[in-house]
Amino acid sequence: MVTLAYMPIEHVPVLAAEVIRDADPQAGETVVDCTFGGGGHARLLAERLGPEGTLICIDRDPAAHERFEQVAHDAPCEMRFVQSDFVAALTELAADGVRPDVVLFDLGVSSMQIDAWERGFSYSFDAPLDMRMDPESEPSAETIVNEWPESRISETLRSFGDEKHARSIAREIVARRPLETTSDLVEAVRAGVPPKVRFGRGNPAKRTFQAIRIAVNGELDALDAALPSAWDLLAPGGRLAAISFHSLEDRRVKRFLVDRARGCICPPEFPVCQCGLEPEAKLITRGGVAPSAGEIADNPRSSSAHLRVARKLDRSES
Ligand SMILES: C[S@@+](CC[C@H](N)C(=O)[O-])C[C@H]1O[C@@H](n2cnc3c(N)ncnc32)[C@H](O)[C@@H]1O
Asked: In this structure, which residue's CA is closest to atom 12 in ligand 1?
């Protein structure tokens, strides 16, 4: 077991009641939690599954594995952990013939990861530039800010952080090399944005940190690869549930599920369907589900969350 320098802090699960309501796990079913984190959702799922059910938990972070040992200790269902990227883990489960009834993604970073200041996910603490969910993976944030060309950093900040001042921030980062700590990066951002932003509301480094974290962990590529694998893995009648925290993720989840629910892709002027495609999914959450005002007040980190759930149709239903 891996021992970490910090005490694991429990992750408050986001949209937890809505996940249980809409993914609707039943006693005796098999569920794959692709993003175990602090085990918040996993504990609720385990209670639903009961002694005949199986909960397979995946996370690429060894800290999540440590937390799993605590959660699984006297769990009400069978639980196993796969410490891996969820793309590889889903391939492994397919090879083992696992056909889950529910697959859950709760994307992004956990509170445990943000609060572990020494891992460098937060702009609020001074820490080494790391941001890796899997500490063995490459690159780290330090590699990106010190070794990537300015144009690639600028493009990363623009496309993964929607950062308006991407070019001037990237220029500052390169001019200040080597950057060693999160404070060095925050200072580079502050110097790269106009005074109105530097002294405005909120931390001007927020978008830069999000963008670099997404690049470090290959988050969007992983999501693009995992959604079709998870869908193929699901048993007929199974439910895919995904919680995203920004539009880059939500757009991908929405497009994926809506495409599967649509079926026919013929142009509207065709009098008769030529493509022959049948719907494979029924959307359970049509426009997605957002947290209530009460949940946001209790857990401000939930404010940007969005849940989408779809059911995989049996062939006879389509
Ligand atoms: C938002 S947290 C999940 C929190 C969890 N649902 C809970 O209630 O405690 C996301 C977790 O997913 C993990 N993760 C993100 N991307 C991953 C990937 N591609 N493969 C495996 N784990 C990943 C992160 O390490 C993090 O622990």
From this structure: 35
Among the listed residues 31, 63, 62, 68, the one whose alpha carbon sits nearest the alpha carbon of residue 47:
31
Q: How many CB atoms lie within 10 A of CB 316?
A: 6
* Residue-level pLDDT at 116: 94
Mutation test residue for ligand 1: of 18, 90, 133, 217, the one with most atoms within 8 Å of CB: 133
| pLDDT given for residue 6 in this prediction | 33
Residue 151 corresponds to which tokens in the numbers above? 């144009």
Q: Are 146 and 232 in contact, with CB atoms under 8 Å apart?
A: no
3-state class of 238 per DSSP?
Answer: coil
Nearest CA among 158, 166, 165 for reference residue 194? 165
Task: Tell me what pLDDT residue 276 has.
Answer: 87
CA 27 to chain centre: 26
Distance CA 312, CA 314 (A): 7
Residues 129, 180 contacting (CB under 8 angstroms): yes
**pLDDT greater than 50 at residue 4:** no
Q: Ligand 1: which residue has its CA nearest to atom 3?
A: 37
Task: Give me the mean pLDDT over the 81-90 stretch.
Answer: 98
Structure tokens at 311: 């059911």
pLDDT computed for residue 200 by the predictor = 86
Please give the single-letter amino acid code of residue 258.
V
How many angstroms from the chain centroid is the CA of residue 283? 20
Ligand 1, atom nearest to 16 Cα: 8
Q: What share of the chain is helix, strand, coil (3-state, %, to 5)?
A: 45, 15, 40
Are 40 and 17 within 8 A, CB to CB? no
- Tell which atom from ligand 1 comes closest to the C-alpha of 35: 12
CA dist 73 and 127 (Å) reads 33
| Mean pLDDT, range 219-231, rounded to an integer | 98
pLDDT at 5: 36
